[in-house]
What does this fold into?
Amino acid sequence: MSTAFANLIDGEQVDSTDRSRNINPSNLGDVIGEYARGTAADADRAVAAARRAFATWSQSSPQQRFDILDRAGTEILAKKEELGRLLAREQGKPLADGIGEAGRAGAIFKFFAGEALRITGDKLDSVRPGIDVEVTREPLGVIAAITPWNFPLAIPAWKIAPALAFGNTVVLKPAELAPGSPWALVDIVQRAGLPPGVLNLMMGPGSTIGAALASSPDVDAVSFTGSQEIGRGVAEAAVKAGSRVQLEMGGKNPLIVLDDADLKVAVNVAANGAFFQAGQRCTASSRLIVTEGIHDRFVQALVDRMKTLVVDDALKPGIDLGPVVDDRQLAKDLEYIEIGRKEGARLAWGGERLTRDTDGYYLSPALFTDTTPEMRINQEEIFGPVAAIIRAENYDEALKLANDTPFGLSSGIVTTSLKMASHFKRHAQSGLVMVNLPTAGLDYHVPFGGRKGSSYGPREQGSYAKEFYTIVKTAYVAP
Ligand code: NAD
It folds into this structure.
């Protein structure tokens, strides 16, 4: 009998007879726990609790909010090994990456503890004599945070922390595939001293709980991270309900490698960006756009590097890639590998199911060459360790290809030319631009988000987070 984990509504643990089993993708015999699957009615209760709690939490002092968030950050950092291990076990990313993500979640809480103290306003003279104008920021209300499975600690952290710092209350709806890390995070933040109802956890199916939150007229804002398909429906429902909405969604991120690139840098940047964390990062570079003069050398060197990548149990030391997250993702990756073959691309390396000591969803990273931009493998987000090389004649064509996608999250270039790097920074149609760095791997204190079909609404993270989590008031005062 495995341990059961309940939802948190109004400060109370609320269990459910319906539960999902959280299975380790590196070892299918390892059940991490059973996690409650709430109902739409539970979601309504959580929203009502958050609404009641808002009355007092929105009036709490910045010092009180600083203390709680700072305490939570301290405990997350103190437990980063334990949390990172849980994350690696339930999601399949290498242990070092799991610990890194836990450290990031702790740092995010520390950062937003400080932000609670830094909220400012403006005082101006009116255009009318004898009148003052004050512009202040106030808490927005009840925030629904809907999150994916690929960063199950960091993404809930970067939504919960700013929401609480600016005086809002929260209902968190994490992804069903990795509920353990968000459960542990909520437990820590709650114990740091939050009054009941300020933070609520609603685990369960997206189609019922996520949909109930997105369409609730009692929710003031919905912050969603996940796929484009689901995100669009969330936005429609939220707008209909009159809620503010923010979406961070998929990507088909390009990495350009120019003739003048340092080959070693190019290979490291491409291998990391395309394949690490099994390609299950929204910022992963799945399109490698390579100019003629370096193309053949780059392909050879990247394939040589791929042969050295160790794919094994996420908890084993020294691995490069863990398994993919579940059977559905594995089937999707294999299907796209087949689609690529049928479209006429050449599978240069990988794309095979692997067996290891334990039964898990192991897949060798796959690289396609001789691909064309319109192939489905270059247009659709696969979300696995699968990358495609597109040959470009020169920089101008590479830039055109890089921008030729409905997505616009992250894009990168490997070059030793300052001129090319500067031009690319200016002309890449993406929210994030990387020069001689992988398209994935970000700081926690600066804004994050994309353009075009990848994002909707204001940026997340850093001091820009206040644009979403506060509402502006303009007061006119005649003394
Ligand atoms: P998903 O869209 O399937 O699910 C995301 C969340 O939405 C989950 O909590 C899910 O339960 C919930 N949900 C499902 N159906 C819903 C509905 N009808 N109404 C409301 N909520 C619903 O995404 P996923 O598979 O968990 O995550 C992978 C996707 O997330 C990829 O597309 C990836 O690119 C994207 N992602 C984007 C970012 C970013 O910041 N841009 C970061 C990480 C992941």
